[in-house]
Amino acid sequence: MDVSIIIVNYRSWKSLRVCLDSISKIVAQKLTFEVIIVDNFSDDGEFEIFKNKYQNFIFIKNEANTGFSNGCNLGAKNAKGNYMLFLNADTTISLETVNTLHETYKTHTEIGILSCLQIDKKNRFFNQKKLFPSFIRLFGIARFFYRKLFSEKLNKKFNTKDDLFYPDWVTGTSIFISRDWFEKVNGWNEDYWLYFEDVDICKRISQKKGKIAVTRNATIFHEHGGASRINFKTECITKTEVIISNHVYISNHFNGFNRNISHSFLIIGILTEKIILSFLSLFLFLI
Known about the structure:
There is one protein chain. The protein is of the alpha/beta class. Helix content is 45%, strand content 18%. It has helices spanning 13-24, 46-53, 68-77, 95-107, 140-149, 151-157, 179-184, 197-207, 232-253, 256-284; strands at 3-9, 33-39, 58-61, 83-87, 91-92, 111-119, 164-165, 174-178, 211-222. Strands 1, 2, 3, 4, 5, 6, 7, 8 and 9 form a nine-stranded mixed beta sheet that branches. Helix 9 packs antiparallel against helix 10 (256-284). The protein is globular, with a radius of gyration of 19 Å. The relative contact order is 0.15.
């Protein structure tokens, strides 16, 4: 088996249907692939319906909603491919994209993780010029001034005129990785329930001298939030997980005084932001 496409789902059936329909249209002649859907205990009666409809795909029911990383690792454990493409449920993909990812990865042996361009329903491309978090880049305002101050250096780093460019990390929306690299870093880090697990795996691959790359020759459609913002309750949970995962990443990758001060500044910054927004809502009658 060449490629195992692995998708983790939690009650995002509407988006998943569109995604699986796009994969169903792929008829590969030079490439063998399988599709594995791990359902993180949606427990809403839809699992069996989808399993019966898409009988050419492999469906795995997780016993609990144990997070994105755990779902990905469960899918990888059951995968047969030499390469794995981890794909969000709220995406659509074509044969050309799968072929490009596969061929590019095999050609460029320095790459540990490969991704592609992402476009939304308004034909806007997502920003993929990602930098690893650091003490001075924990907050949006700090990142803004950092990019302004080092704009020339960053423009050189993210030269998007080439077929490939090399950010520090890529989102888990589309991650193409060989089985060798996946096993070398022991897969996805299950310290993270949701968010920052993609930053973490890219960081660990970079520490082992593997490159993180994006190809401009392939594009997927991504309905941002189609899986994580299916309702108000889920959106609240996922936004809370962003905060939690920030702290987990700091604990895993920051050292000494830098770790302690980063935890403190993150707590103060988030509390300040939420207090201000809550105060304003009293006057603006916002929910």
